[in-house]
Amino acid sequence: TRAFNFSAGPATLPESVLRQAQAEMLEWNGVGASVVEISHRSADFIALAERAEADLRQLLSIPDDYAVLFLAGGATTQQALLPLNFASPGQTVDVVVTGHWGKTAIKQAKPYVNVHIAADGEPGGFRDIPPRAQWQLSPDAAYVHITANETIHGIEFRDTPDVGEVPLFADFSSSIASEPLDVSRYGLIYAGAQKNLGPVGISVVIVRRDLLARAGQPRADIFNYASHAARDSMLNTPPTWNWYLLGLTVKWMLDEGGVAEFARRNAEKARLVYGAIDGSGGYYRNEVAPGVRSRMNIPFFLPDERLDALFVSESKAAGLLALKGHKAVGGIRASLYNAMPVAGAQALVDFMHDFAQRHG
Ligand code: PLP
User: Fold this and answer.
1) 182 is in an annotated binding site
2) Which of 221, 255, 289 is the last residue of a domain?
3) In which element (H, E) is residue 315 found?
4) What is the pLDDT of residue 25?
5) Where along this sequence does the record place binding of pyridoxal 5'-phosphate (predicted)?
């Protein structure tokens, strides 16, 4: 039996997607071979790739003046490729740091550009997003980078910030497709797939086409987004298995009712879990400012950290997996991506009530 899996990523996938992949593992689409055994340049695979892109465009309402890239590697890879592709040597890029992944974006960009921290939530312990009025943006920045949802610290932008003429680049790894999104507010959106879009090993980059004309920095062709766009993400052998699973996952989201439906479910799940925390009479604690609490990743604390291991082992025995908090934050963390049903959040809440009563 499959447990409710609260892993932050790689994360739970829809059971129907896994079942279909299992059924098609040996023979796919009448081609007499598995999808992992055929050429990415075959007509069958190209049709799959085009379908996945069309479905993703429909799911996220991606305008035509944006290219969609399907690239091998993770979000961290994209964090290094952004300055190479969109900033000239020595140019400034602005980064708004609201948690761990903003810091990795800085680390990956630093060898290539002048990184300016326009706002930093770290002095406040990453419990809030610095108010927009306090951001110190550079007028000549190549782009402004934000992390739409900080997976470890559990902080999420609930509105798209206005950064003026400079393109806004956003890491949506842990919240893409979780609610409707106005892509046109961004110059670039990127996401590693392993939370809401499918398996690890493939990333999606949604980029305004005019930005692809930027010279950037000297770089190998394989690190050039424009080359990938010109070759429909088949500059080299793409991760075909991952692309296939991503396509199935996107199709599943469309069939379930699209991002509006997932926004509804995700709000409901978050309401349940934050409700259990806030209604626990102080037994459970979430320290993030209410207005920026993540709907996807909910870190919380018990009254005594010596109870953490017991919470994790008892919840596991109750069929609730992977609730241990990230080591940078400690405590407990529940990740509630699109494939986590409301029933999973309800099961967690029931367990939390029960645990607090037994160990209160
Ligand atoms: N950005 C965010 C918001 C993440 O949650 C993660 C991974 O968990 C990453 C970046 C790094 O992704 P990857 O490990 O695929 O490079």
Assistant:
1) no
2) 255
3) helix 308-317
4) 97
5) 75-76, 101, 151, 171, 194, 236-237
3-state secondary structure of 343: helix
4 in any annotated domain: no
Contacts of 66 (CB under 8 A, 6+ apart): 183, 206, 207, 208, 209
* Residue 204 domain flag: yes
pLDDT in tens, 63-77: 999 999 999 999 999
- Asked whether residue 28 falls in the same domain as residue 86, the answer is yes
| Partners of 117 in the β-ladder | 95
| Residues designated catalytic | 101, 171, 195
- Rounded distance between C-alpha atoms, residue 294 and residue 58, angstroms: 25
In this structure, which residue's CA is closest to atom 3 in ligand 1? 173
Express each pLDDT in 233-270 by its tens digit.
999 999 999 999 999 999 999 999 999 999 999 999 99
Where residue 141 sits, what CATH number does that domain have?
3.40.640.10
- Give the CB-side neighbour count of residue 349, counting CA atoms within 13 A: 20
| Ligand 1 neighbourhood includes 98 CB (under 6 angstroms) | no
- Look at residue 84 and tell me whether its pLDDT is greater than 90: yes
Q: Which atom of ligand 1 is nearest to the CA of 200?
A: 15
Q: Say if residue 236 carries a ligand binding annotation.
A: yes
ipTM higher than the 0.90 cut: yes
* Shared domain check, 323 and 337: yes
Question: Which candidate, 278, 286, 351, 289, places its Cα nearest to that of 320?
Answer: 351
74 lines ligand 1 (CB under 6 A): yes
Ligand 1 in reach of 239 Cβ (< 6 A): no
Check whether residue 275 and residue 220 sit in a common domain. Answer: no
Is the predicted pLDDT of residue 89 greater than 90, yes or no? yes
Q: Was 98 annotated as part of a binding site?
A: no
Give SS3 for 205: strand
One domain for residues 237 and 269: no
Percentage above 70 pLDDT, the chain: 100
Range of the domain at 171: 16-255
**For residue 333, is pLDDT > 90?**
yes
- Does residue 35 share a domain with residue 130? yes
Per-residue pLDDT at 1 exceeds 90: no
Span 111-116, average pLDDT: 97
Structural domain count, the chain: 2
